[in-house]
Amino acid sequence: MSRLSEFLSPESLWGRLDDPSENAGYEEHPARKGFFTDTSVCIGCKACEVACKEWNQVPDDGYLLTGMSYDNTQQLGASTWRHVAFIEQPVGAPSTGAPPTDLGMPGSKPPGWEREVTLGEDLVDGDPQGAASGDSGVRWLMSSDVCKHCTHAACLDVCPTGSLFRTEFGTVVVQEDICNGCGYCVPACPYGVIDQRKDDGRAFKCTLCYDRLKEGQTPACAQACPTESIQFGDLDELRERAAARVEQLHDQGVDVARLYGADPDDGVGGDGAFFLLLDEPEVYGLPPDPVVTTRDLGSMWRHVGAGALALAGLGAASFLGRRR
Hints:
A 4-stranded mixed β-sheet has the order 10-1-12-11. Helices cover about 25% and strands about 15% of the residues. It starts with a helix and ends with a helix.
């Protein structure tokens, strides 16, 4: 589990990296695993949150209602490794570009809206996640967020104890018994995923159920998802499946569908957990163009080294000048 070899590799901090496990020192390893979350079929049941907490023995996060949403967990954190976001939008808002779904309730479909699209096996009206209430119309965007298990993981680069390491499956895991609570990983994450628990300061996040993966099992959240919104498997196969799903939605008139985190040439080298979104990333609380925060470490150290050599040279020249 060579974190050091990953840190020293010229490809570890930046650039396209197709096999992070090999880069981390695993000569023989299984295919890279990951999540594809199709938000267009998420129903907001939070079964993934519950399954994650039960399997990983994650403590409760307070059960505090914010008064602003049906979502009580608010965001990912040290005690929330899966977070189902509830985003309420009025139909016709500039960012939505989609009408509501007819749920069979009086007044649930705005007058004049007649277009129908096919989503999977079902025939519904308009937006796959749209839901209207009253004459005004409201749609819900729901998405189960999780650690992205980045190809270029800045949290790995800054961890001084080796608590964070790359697994043979290409995922990133925190070893809680080695974490010293320094917190360097928290600001290093471009997604704001990793967090420290207030009682002891140690960092925690999704492990992609590393213990289950080693036994050939599906992660708990994907196992519990009733709509297969969370799909688990080989990352390359998931990317192909996701691209086909986007094409299917586009053919059905859902032009707002797009992938987030699936591009291996993006600022983090692609994510091990990526998403199909029905709006801009910012609407879901995701950064539009994430970049690994340690991308410039290599050049910074080179500049520091060059400066140190220059200072040493000046010191030597001054010393020799005095002797003369």
